[in-house]
Amino acid sequence: GGFGTVEDSLVPGTLVRVDTHDTVSIVATGLTFPNGIVVDPTRTHLFVAETYAARVSRFDLQPDGTLGGRTTVLDRSAGVRVARVSEGNIRLPWLPDGLAIDADGGLWVA
After folding, report:
1. Does the pLDDT of residue 8 top 90, yes or no?
2. How far apart are CA 49 and CA 36, in angstroms?
3. Cα(44)–Cα(21) distance, integer angstroms
4. What is the tens place of the pLDDT at every residue in 72-100?
5. Taking the CA atoms of the chain, what radius of gyration do you get in angstroms?
């Protein structure tokens, strides 16, 4: 599913990279409704807002554009896990959406 859902059920999301030659590569799988990405100023980390997991994940960004080591840098789920978008809208205390990074590397989450 393009937005990570099938009839309200959450399905694992995928992050793809399109390089300058229009080559498409899958760089991450198993994301819970990835809904915002940003690269840090040093170009060594890529952050993903996973809306219906109420978390932000960080990946190591390799020079060739592939991703390595995934780390959860912010988890506001309060232990709640949901299987449906409608559940998340009601039960999760916070739904991260867009991301930005300032010049000093500070992460901003909407």
Report:
1. no
2. 5
3. 22
4. 999 999 999 999 999 999 999 999 999 99
5. 14
Structure tokens at 96: 């991260």
Q: What are phi and psi of 85, to 5 degrees?
A: -55, -45
Half-sphere exposure of 70 (CA within 13 A, CB side): 14
Yes or no: say if 27 and 66 are a contact pair by the CB < 8 Å rule. yes
> Taking a C-beta distance cutoff of 8 angstroms, is the pair 10, 32 a contact?
yes
Q: Which residue matches tokens 């010049």?
A: 103
pLDDT at 1 over 50: no
Please say whether the dihedral angle defined by the alpha carbons of residues 12, 77, 61 and 46, taken in this order, is positive or negative.
Answer: positive
